[in-house]
Write a structure and sequence with these properties.
Blueprint: H1 6-10, E1 18-29, E2 33-37, E3 45-48, H2 56-60, E4 67-76, E5 84-95, H3 111-116, H4 125-147, E6 151-152, E7 158-159, E8 200-201, H5 206-216, E9 218-226, E10 239-248, H6 252-273, H7 275-290, H8 302-311, E11 315-318, H9 319-327, H10 330-333, H11 350-361, E12 365-371, E13 387-395, E14 399-406, H12 411-421, H13 429-436, E15 442-448, H14 449-457
Parallel strand pairs: 3-5, 6-9, 11-12
Antiparallel strand pairs: 1-2, 1-4, 2-3, 4-5, 7-8, 9-10, 10-15, 12-13, 13-14, 14-15
Helix pairs in contact: 4-6, 4-7, 4-14, 6-8
Bound molecules: 4-amino-1,4-dioxobutan-2-aminium adenosine-5'-monophosphate and magnesium ion.
4-amino-1,4-dioxobutan-2-aminium adenosine-5'-monophosphate (4AD) binds near residues 164, 229, 403, 404 and 444.
Length: about 475
């Protein structure tokens, strides 16, 4: 007999028909009521066992976490909390789960405990909801770009470049660390390494994406990204997923429009398609915040907050204006910022970004025209000679969610910048070629996918929105 999913049965009109399903026991009450979940929805289906006519040894094996197969009749439920249930006629244990050892008992576990059990945490309602949302968001990303004429471009994972120039790359090598080949000067001789040169895991697919935008017009990447930055924060991972659209002939304004439209579109998709999971996470947040002082509670519930972002314009503010606002702000005057703002040119820290978004504007903010000195080499220099056409999108509770720019398309200006900061032209000859042959205005940005998932799920720690997080000192599983 064909297997149905729990999601199908809960929405079906198969009343009084025989049904077949498989899943994992969430709870088993009164030797009668199994709450069965198969991952297809956050909801469990109640399966009622005729315990008087069931072998007691079999009943004992129906424990939390066990995999079971059920055949029975779908009926309207007598009890509260569900509309339909399954009257079990045949039950088979597919895989036992020893209740004395199974870590995911039907009770509240801390997120820290669940992180240590990341291979099983997905069996909880919270992580089921998060990961279904993560999947829906990925689909929404591809849907948005495909419907808007973009091509999906697979940027390489192993590269020779450090696009962001921050020196936070993971080296890829097959050399023997104890006995590497040396040059005459005594340095490691990477000519003898696997790729015949120094190679690392990508920190961004942007530079390669630019070459594709200059032929296909509109492209985007969506892939794993690696950064060896030693940041143990709730917003940093060593391995994360980034989405990087790159568009020929787009200037910075068009880039900001694209960023705003894109984010609104993927959030709308979850509002329309992930109601049950969002409602669950909203309740979870409300419960979590009950323990907090009123000042620390969110002003909006999760779904209202998502609607707010979709329905309102992001505020666009230049870096220079933002610095003025911050300099004159209460926390700055009262020396409440860990990094006080005293002049133009300072890099913004997450405390400043969050002040602008959460306290001052109370909506997502796009900051643009940053000082050249604090941004990457490839951003287009403005006429003032000191700012670049950069833009960051800042979100409540998150801070920076997007970083992007209009690119420097003028060969001479780009070369001069590279020389100034010591990037060897020979290393990026292919990148410079795009400026030699048919150069044009173009722009793009990178959106940190996990930060987006954090925002949509309301999860405070980025380690809880990626299946198996990689962070400094941690690559378990
Ligand atoms: O601002 P970033 O460094 O920009 C770039 O990499 C550009 N090449 C993008 C482009 O223009 N194509 O990173 C972009 C975004 C950040 O805004 C943030 O959301 C996310 O990537 N991000 C991280 N997310 C999780 N963990 C980290 N360690 C991250 N570093 C950046
Ligand atoms: Mg950035």
């Amino acid at each position: 007999m064909k297997k149905s999913s729990v999601a199908e049965l809960l929405n079906s009109d198969k009343i009084l028909q025989e049904v077949h399903l498989k899943g994992w026991v969430r709870t088993f009450r009164s030797n009668r009521f199994i709450a069965l979940n198969d991952g297809s929805t956050i909801k469990n289906i109640q399966c009622v066992v005729d315990f008087e006519n069931t072998n007691p040894d079999l009943l004992k094996r129906i424990s939390t976490g066990a995999a079971i197969s059920i055949t029975g009749t779908l009926v309207e439920s007598q009890g509260k909390g569900q509309t339909v249930e399954v009257q079990v006629t045949d039950l088979e244990i597919l895989g036992d789960s020893n209740p004395d050892e199974y870590p995911i008992q039907p009770k509240k576990h801390t997120l820290e405990f669940l992180r240590e059990n990341a291979h099983l945490r997905i069996r909880t309602n919270t992580f089921g909801a998060i990961m279904r949302l993560r999947s829906a968001l990925s689909f929404a990303v591809h849907k948005y770009f495909t419907e808007n004429g973009f091509y999906y471009f697979h940027s390489p994972i192993v590269t020779g470049s450090d696009a962001e120039g921050a020196g936070e790359t993971f080296r890829v090598t097959t050399l023997d660390p104890k006995n590497p080949p040396l040059t005459e000067e005594g340095d490691v001789n990477y000519k003898e390494d696997f790729f015949g040169k120094e190679a690392n895991l990508t920190v961004s697919g942007q530079l390669e994406a630019e070459t594709y935008a200059m032929a296909l017009g509109k492209v985007y990447t969506f892939g794993p990204t690696f950064r060896a930055e030693n940041s143990n924060t709730t917003r940093h991972l060593s391995e994360f997923w980034m989405i990087e659209p790159e568009v020929a002939f787009n200037d910075l304004d068009a880039n900001m429009d694209l960023g705003e439209d894109f984010i609104k579109s993927v959030i709308s998709y979850t509002l329309e398609n992930c109601k049950d999971d969002l409602e669950f996470l909203e309740q979870r947040l409300i419960q979590e915040e009950k323990g907090k002082p009123a000042a620390q509670r969110s002003e909006m519930a999760l779904i209202e907050k998502l609607r707010f972002v979709v329905d309102n314009n992001f505020k666009r503010v230049s870096y220079t204006e933002a610095i003025e606002i911050l300099r004159n702000s209460k926390p700055n005057k009262k020396k409440k910022f860990q990094f006080p703002i005293d002049g133009w040119g300072a890099d913004l820290q997450s405390e400043h970004e969050r002040f602008l978004v959460e306290k001052h504007f109370k909506c997502p903010v796009i900051l643009f025209d940053y000082p050249a000195d604090i941004k990457a080499f490839y951003m287009r220099l403005n006429e003032d000679g000191k700012t670049v056409r950069a833009m960051d999108i800042l979100f409540p509770g998150i801070g920076e969610i997007v970083g992007g720019s209009q690119r420097e398309e003028r060969l001479d200006v780009l070369k001069q910048k590279m020389e100034e900061i010591g990037i060897d032209e020979k290393e990026l000859w292919w990148y410079l070629d795009t400026r030699k042959f048919g150069t044009a205005v173009h722009s793009g940005f990178g959106l940190g996918f996990e930060r987006l998932v954090q925002f949509v799920t309301g999860m405070g720690n980025i380690r809880d929105v990626i299946p198996f997080p990689r962070t400094p000192q941690n690559a378990e599983f």
